[in-house]
Amino acid sequence: MNQSIKKAFLDTEDGQIFYRIGGEGEPLVLLHMVPRSSDEFKELMAILASKYRVIAMDLMGLGDSDKPPREYSVADYAKTVILLLDELGIEQSNILGSLTGGYIAGEVAVSYSDRVNKLVLCNVHGFDAKEAKIITQRYSQGFTIKEDGSHLMERWLARVNYVGQGELNHRCVLDDLKAFGRSIYAGVAVGKYCIYAPEKFKLIQCPTLVCNGTKALEPLDKYGLVKIENQAWLSEAIPHSKTVKIEGGTLWMFNQMEEDISKFIIDFLDNNQRKK
Length: 276
Known about the structure:
276 residues; alpha/beta; 13 helices
């Protein structure tokens, strides 16, 4: 049964943060990858809102959130999560992060450990120093508007082999367009942060689920952004974590396989020992 998901804004000193919220029960914050928005969790929220109070925010500079007045760090993004929890009167929450959002979720679990109950990290791939530098440069440049409009077709074709020609690709392109013409701070922040994350994440103590799609590396590998040997980092950094693989899952698996993924999430949140 679909639950009603409402939309709202949080006012901060650096601008407004857009978020979606619905359901009742134990809180679950969802943090999207770059350059997407909370729309990444549209299908998943409709399922999980029947059991949890689900909250998905647009990272500042993406989606319908304002661009921050300065280059944000991962620590800055983590602080915005806490600001939203405070606004909603939530003392402790579960947090799920997808790729970029996973790095931010991990930072929240480290820096605000008393505010996090359980952690779910999805497709949070590892990057070495060279790859991190490429990521930082690409997101620093951002997307460029071209006079002949060819940038529109470029974005349409960018992931068509993975999401198809239909509505999902259209939704992804809309998210792309909202990030055009400026540096994509969340991507830059993670590009600078990811090489330190293996040591930082060793401080994570809460129950953690690592959830990876078996096809999620493909588009990143295509552009030389990942190496297979760097992908065991989460299990090494968080030895108490539980790992599951989503067979056939891509970077866009929350939109494509929401029923399968929701089962793993619900099982982890409901049946594993909670943080004391």
